[in-house]
Design a protein that fits this description.
Strand content: 25-35%
Largest sheet: 6 strands, antiparallel
Mean pLDDT: 80
Helix content: 25-40%
Number of helices: 5
Radius of gyration: 26 Å
Length: 288
């Protein structure tokens, strides 16, 4: 059975729905989750029942002062992390120098620019091996052994990025040969170790989905609501943009979907129900 919850855009409330002529009551609230609107448990004749209210076969009329969005509840999607800034680190193995450079790259083209600069900088090196992962979900990847035996450089480097669950990152390892052959196993350990040690020095930036919420507030209440929201975003991992002033004061914040119901409740309590948050689109943001 698929669990369901309901979220009102206004103050927490119970919404009433009519389904097939019978009156049922929606209980409690749940946030709109990434990939779709929220959903709700349906209480019917005192029993908890799962009801799909998509409107495909049955028409539902919601009687609620606020806007209620319905849909299937899903687990929030997690996203690969990235790194904040470029890092360069060098290791020496049996007289061979391995210079690892890892850098953020928002696209394959951006990664190629990093690779081009490194190859120009280390033009006299025997090998400049590469691994990159790009895309919000890390669904684009590429690697190159650059003359090393097949599978001993680029792929091991790429596996390090995969194991660290990173995306939008490129790794270039430059090797200056020291005269002693390392063998296939030694090369794999050297290239993967060079990338791993460089990443140990990097600042990891996680990514998450935040939902845009806007609130229109009368100028007479703007100062008080501003203070409430500033404290709220700190406590709930949200972000507050600068307010805009027109006919009303408009506040815009970005909040994790899991705490939208709490925002609704807290704003209702602070404004005596006069301020109704309006939920907008989702976006994926970097969180240091």
């Amino acid at each position: 059975m698929v669990s369901r919850a309901v979220r009102c855009a206004g103050s927490p409330c119970a919404a009433t729905a009519r389904l097939g002529g019978n009156r049922q009551k929606w209980l409690t609230r749940g946030p709109r989750l990434p990939g779709g609107p929220s959903s709700a448990w349906l209480i019917l004749d005192g029993a908890q029942t799962d009801a799909r209210v998509t409107g495909e076969q049955r028409r539902i009329r919601l009687e609620c002062a606020a806007v209620v969005r319905l849909g299937t509840m899903t687990t929030p999607r997690s996203y690969p992390s990235t790194i904040a800034d470029a890092v360069t680190n060098e290791i020496v193995i049996k007289k061979s120098r391995f210079i690892a450079h890892v850098a953020p790259a928002a696209s394959p083209d951006a990664a190629d620019e990093v690779i081009t600069r490194d190859k120009k900088q280390y033009w006299d090196a025997r090998h400049n091996c590469v691994a990159m992962v790009t895309g919000v979900l890390g669904d684009r990847a590429r690697s190159s052994d650059d003359g090393e035996p097949s599978g001993t450089a680029g792929v091991p480097m790429l596996e390090v990025l995969r194991r660290r669950e990173l995306t939008d990152v490129v790794a270039v390892v430059t090797r200056y040969f020291g005269g002693i052959k390392l063998g296939a196993g030694g090369l794999i350990r050297a290239y993967s170790g060079a990338v791993s040690e460089a990443l140990d020095l990097a600042v990891i930036v996680r990514r998450e989905t935040l939902t845009r919420v806007t609130l229109d507030v009368a100028h007479s209440d703007a100062g008080r609501i501003d203070n409430v929201l500033r404290e709220w975003v700190v406590a709930h991992g949200a972000r507050l943009d600068e307010p805009r002033y027109g006919a009303t004061a408009t506040f815009e914040l970005w909040a994790p979907p899991a705490v939208l119901h709490q925002l609704t409740a807290d704003v209702a309590a602070a404004s005596a129900g006069s301020v109704v948050p309006v939920v907008g689109e989702d976006r994926i943001v970097d969180v240091p």
